[in-house]
Amino acid sequence: MRRLLVTRCLPALLIGWMLLPLATAKAEEKTSDGVKQRTEVYKKVGDVELTMHIYEPADHTAQAKSPAIVFFFGGGWTSGSPKQFFPHCELLAKEGMVAMAAEYRVASRHKVKADSCVADAKSAVRWARANAERLGIDPQRIAAGGGSAGGHLAACTAAIDGFEESSEDATISSRPDALVLFNPAVILAPEKQLPPAVLKRMNGLAARMGTEPENLSPYHHLHAKMPPTIIFHGKADETVPYVTVERYAEKMRELGCLCKLVGYDDAGHGFFNQGRGDNSAYQDTTKQMTQFLRDQGFL
To answer: pLDDT at position 201, please?
Structure first.
């Protein structure tokens, strides 16, 4: 049983960082069941190429100006794979969106902290907007989404200033126009209204951040221009306690922003993934995700 809470609310040779204005590498395009899929490189960091997995309707063209969404996988900023959101991308492509799943640097593979993950997420959204005409997407209808740490990254692109690559064109916004978040980590620093037990769980976060946790805590940076947001969260989540997203949604309401919080009784962390249990949570969350995007004019 779920409860729905609605609240309103440079040069190309620059050493180190580079956002690719146009893709430098494309995998062979594949078409299956009415969906085209390909992979492009959206950013290079030294010798590391970060890829964007792109799903679009089979008849999609550059003239379409379709809505788009960029997903970020979970894994505690340490591990994970874009494959987590391939099912969501395929589903939304069938609905008419250009849906993308972004690779970003993580601790286990690239020896980075969460601040670098945030920088990559901002680069991914900016890349989509910078290439909107070529990709056939509407630059004013680009959503961001993700699960757990990926949900945190999506929220950061909307809430937090800074952590931008100096080599990128700052005149192109890295802020999304809507957010779709699955058990996201949205409060990473102490907040007086949280229970002591929840605050205690935050003690180990600093070592993974690369900066003070509050600097990367979306809750602490919420503002009145936050985009429409939907959050799916298990009430039995022991990794990211449900009370944290309740407080996040309340603050969104206080700011006059739209935020829908959908809570699932007895559901733990990662409950929404395809193949989890009898798949009913995946089916329900994707159904509501689609309706939310439709309500916001994305579909």
So the answer is: 87
Alpha carbon distance 261, 50 (integer Å): 31
pLDDT for the residue 48: 97
Count: domains in the chain:
1
Q: Which residues lie below 8 Å from residue 84, measured CB to CB, with a gap of 6+?
A: 71, 73, 74, 101, 147, 150, 273
**DSSP-derived 3-state class of residue 216:** helix
Structure tokens at 158: 């909307």
Distance separating alpha carbons of residues 205 and 214, to the nearest angstrom: 10
Cα-only R_g, the chain: 18
Residue 226's nearest CA partner among 271, 278, 181 is 181
- The answer on pLDDT for 22 being more than 80 is no
Average pLDDT for the chain: 92
Mean pLDDT for 166-180 is 96
Q: How far apart are CA 39 and CA 236, in angstroms?
A: 36
**Range of 243's domain?**
2-295
Q: Which CATH number covers residue 37?
A: 3.40.50.1820
pLDDT value, residue 204: 85
Q: Which long-range CB contacts under 8 A does 18-21 form with residues at least 24 apart?
A: 18/43, 18/44, 18/45, 18/165, 18/167, 19/43, 19/123, 19/126, 19/127, 19/130, 19/165, 19/167, 19/168, 19/169, 20/44, 20/127, 21/130, 21/131
